[in-house]
Write a structure and sequence with these properties.
This protein has 360 residues and is α+β, with helices and mostly antiparallel strands. It has helices spanning 18-26, 51-54, 64-70, 81-96, 124-139, 151-157, 174-180, 191-199, 205-209, 213-220, 223-230, 261-281, 314-325, and strands spanning 10-15, 35-38, 46-49, 75-77, 102-106, 109-113, 143-148, 166-168, 247-258, 286-295, 300-311, 334-344. It contains 13 helices and twelve strands.
Length: 360
Amino acid sequence: MELRPPFRKIIHVDMDAFFASVEQLDNPELKGKPIAVGGSQARGVVAAASYEARKFGVKSAMSGILAKQKCPDLIFVKPNFSRYKEISHQIREIFYDYTDLVEPLSLDEAYLDVTENKVGNPSASLIAQEIRNRIFNELNLTASAGISINKFIAKVASDINKPNGQKTINPEEVISFLDNLPINQFYGVGKVTASKMYNLGIFTGNDLKQKSLEELANLFGKSGAHYYSIVRGIHNSEVKTDRIRKSVGAETTFFENISSEIFMIQKLEKIADELEKRLKKIDTKGKTVTLKIKYSDFTLQTRSKTIDEFIQQKKEFFPIVKELLYQEKLKNSVRLLGISFANLNTEKKTPILVQLKFDF
């Protein structure tokens, strides 16, 4: 199986340490210092870390206590999400100067399809460079970018020259690039899957390519076909300009671990109140209710139930939440509880966009 045109020009733009960089931008005294956004309380979790902090091993999703142990001089900063959203909107306005095919993944990253673009530039690499220059000149922030023929490769490429760099994988370079790519650098292959692949003797893309479609399906289920395709440079997911919300949720991390189910019900009541507000605000209903439980040892468990009708009100879904809580005995004391809705009434199919051949 070989890659054949027509190809697309896809750019993945990823802001560098976005939350932390915005805080350093707004407070020059933090420039060049190791900072962590969030995580300052005993139960806090780091939302983002500056590159100065990352040198000490501080990472997002790490507990504030552990982060402080790794970096004693770490400065904790309270998150300001309204400010991050404001900057993110300004960044997206820059993207829209080049293409309307923009798919935001989060506040700090997005895919752009520039196969056909508003500036008439045939080079996706030059467009990416121009976008990064504008972000720096207009907002005084840095971004990295990956450029290639599909979203998967562009996403992987954007990490290669981080921070404040970019990497282009041209069509003729795709196969050799994937052959030599360490399996843990494949986007979507987490630690557990990577460990399983190592045990199977799969360390690079070339090793993965030696497995047949049938073997991969037996080993990894539905993901097997995905791995079979991406290692051959095939990823046909188009840039979606109207991303469909797949779930809505609310959760709370507790200052102290709790073990009483009665106390948990009280906490879940408040979480349910917040979730009902969110569902009503965006006029959304769902059929699948999920209870999220994070234990004191940081292991995560989810319990779900799907019903026949779309529901939205607390009085409709809270009995299901209680049923899920009592479904089985808790394994340990609990540090976080959350409730979410999936299988929403807003889900719909997105039309496929046909793109043209291009030169990088």
